[in-house]
Design goal:
By secondary structure, this protein is α+β, with helices and mostly antiparallel strands. The protein has helices spanning about 1-5, 15-20, 60-80, 85-95, 110-115, 130-135, and strands spanning about 25-30, 40, 50-55, 145, 155, 165-170, 175-180, 185, 190-195. The strands form two sheets. It has a six-stranded antiparallel beta sheet, with no helix packed on it. It has a three-stranded mixed beta sheet with strand order 1-3-2, with helices on one face.
Length: about 200
């Protein structure tokens, strides 16, 4: 519990401790994974497991932990008979996060933006541009830029070294062409990039 608490805002420690007292689930803090912030795994004959990346800032870590705890609650009630991010999960996530939604835990503007997000939570908080940008202010600073900040036609690289050229903004995503293959990819506007 001590290690877990070191990753979340101090103002949430007592609530998390009391919340987890009644939960029969293993929570593991893992190394950073590029494709997800956390996950929930249910095994019929084993204790369920929640993993959360250790690289997240305290506010994103707490949101991710509560997201995965909502999956745990849904699995206890419905097993695997419902959609992973369906109505049952949305309600469970709202109920789980609501007691933590206050400015003593989440600073402004995160608290207000998160409140709006929770009216109809998405499968990933990364789909909410405003929430992502508010949370990124608490990440460790780096030399990356965001793809929405650059002009069309600019060449850039992503963390694995692959190179792209920005083509245009679609409705919510940004269309880019990989230089080596010529294939088209869609990026989230808040994707971190390095200008070549």
């Amino acid at each position: 519990m001590e290690e877990l608490l070191s990753y979340i805002p101090k103002a949430a420690h007592i609530q998390i401790e009391s919340f987890l007292r009644n939960m029969d689930v293993n929570i593991i803090v893992t190394k950073q994974r590029l494709t997800k912030h956390g996950d929930f795994r249910f095994h019929p004959n084993k204790k369920p497991i929640i993993t959360v990346n250790n690289s997240l800032n305290p506010y994103r870590f707490l949101i991710t932990l509560l997201h995965e705890l909502a999956h745990f609650k849904v699995s206890r009630q419905f097993g695997n008979r419902v959609k992973p991010h369906g109505l049952e999960w949305k309600r469970a996530f709202q109920e789980t996060l609501l007691p933590f939604l206050n400015p003593t835990i989440f600073p402004e503007p995160i608290c207000t933006i998160l409140g709006k997000h929770m009216k109809n939570p998405k499968a990933s908080s990364d789909r909410d541009f405003d929430l992502v940008m508010a949370l990124k202010k608490y990440d460790e600073q780096n030399e990356q830029q965001y793809i929405f900040e650059i002009q069309d036609g600019v060449t850039f690289s992503i963390s694995n070294g692959r190179r792209f050229v920005k083509i245009k903004k679609r409705r919510k995503r940004i269309e880019c062409k990989e230089i080596e293959t010529g294939r088209i990819y869609l990026f989230s506007p808040h994707a971190e990039i390095q200008i070549d």
